[in-house]
Amino acid sequence: MGTSELTWFNQLPAEAARQTLLECCSAPGWAERMTAGRPYSSADDAITLSGGIVAALSAADLAEALAGHPRIGERPDTSQDAPRAAGWSAREQAGVDADDTQTRRALAEGNLEYEQRFGHIYLVCASGRTGKELLALLRGRLQNDPEDEWQVVRTELQKINVLRIRQLLGGVP
Q: If you count Cβ atoms within 10 Å of the first and of the last residue's Cβ in the chain, which end, N or C, has fewer?
């Protein structure tokens, strides 16, 4: 499974591959190292490299990665230059019920509190989680010290990258 997507990606010109990867993760350094790592023999090979890169990202690199994600509970801008990324974000946050105004309001307030405390957006792998679960995770993470929270952000970013790389390279339907 995924052979055609993997072959397609491996054969892209370097700049096209980099631009495609920036839709997975908007940190240019990550995308450049992932592009340089081609060709990949499988999605798992790309995921392994991504994990090492994410572990080594600086705070500035992480900030660039965070800039590519909408706040939890907000709908991504589908008119942006990265429609694939917007689609991924929308699917990942599908568990946030648009009709649950109380949870959406609490998420908006929690996002603001989190941003004031840590200076960046709340990043969490939202796939398969409800708005209430995401809110509970947010509230728990507000108790972290900033250094520990950056490690949580790294872990969550890599979880998101795994999902997106698998989708991009055909590792999952």
A: C
pTM of the model: 0.89
The model's pLDDT over 50-105, given as tens digits with 9 standing for 90+, comes to 999 999 999 899 999 999 888 888 866 655 556 777 777 777 777 787 778 899 99
- b/e code 8-44 from CB counts within 10 Å (16+ = b): ebeeeeeeebbebbbbbbbbebbbbbbbebbebeebe
**pLDDT tens sequence across 107-145:** 999 999 999 999 999 999 999 999 999 999 999 999 999
- How many other CB atoms are found less than 10 A from the CB of residue 78? 12
CA–CA gap between residue 74 and residue 96 (Å, rounded): 9
Spatial CB neighbours of 162, under 8 Å, sequence gap ≥ 6 = 47, 50
